[in-house]
Amino acid sequence: MITLKKLTSKDSETIKELFNDVFTNEPWNDDWSDHVQLQRYIEDLTGNVNSLTLGLYDGNDELVGLSLGSIIHWCTGTEYYIYEFCIRRDKQGRGLGTEFLNLIEGYVKPLNITHIYLQTERTVPAYGFYQKNGFVELQDHASLFKEFK
């Protein structure tokens, strides 16, 4: 049986372990070798008054999924902005991600949250996964980035 639990910055070691394992491997290949930077990033996502980090636990009470986000009060309604979402690599492809999203939706609706917002890259499997789960691409939205050299 899987369960959903709200996590906080006190759970940062468990969060970092799963996060690092997922995102330093395919298809992301992120470089999180700077452990101080990783700690700060997890604190950024879990340590604010509006943070909402949810964990998916399996029947052995092991963390198998993460949703790191914030509740944002926007003009069109209150949203749950997911910055990071993942399922443990050896548990992917079994429907847990879809089940996790459904549990998240059930958790946030009673909080008067009207929608979930997230961003991903078009070139990774997550893009199709989110579309399959009812997320649509915003036609008038552009993500912009400027790197300092």
What is this structure, in a nutshell?
With 149 residues, this protein is of the alpha+beta class. It has helices at 12-23, 35-46, 96-108, 125-132; strands at residues 3-7, 51-57, 63-74, 77-87, 113-118.
- The fraction of residues in strands falls at 25-35%
Please tell me how large the radius of gyration is: 15 Å
The helix-and-strand class reads: alpha+beta
Mean pLDDT figure: 95
**Number of distinct helices:** 4
Strand order of the largest sheet: 1-2-3-4-5
Run of helices and strands: EHHEEEHEH
Helix content: 25-40%
Shape: globular
| CATH architecture label name | 3-Layer(aba) Sandwich
The CATH superfamily label reads: Gcn5-related N-acetyltransferase (GNAT)
Let me know the largest β-sheet: 5 strands, mixed
DSSP, total strands: 5
The number of domains is 1
CATH class category name: Alpha Beta
Extract low-pLDDT stretches. none
User: How far is the N terminus from the C terminus?
Assistant: 49 Å
CATH structural fold name: Aminopeptidase
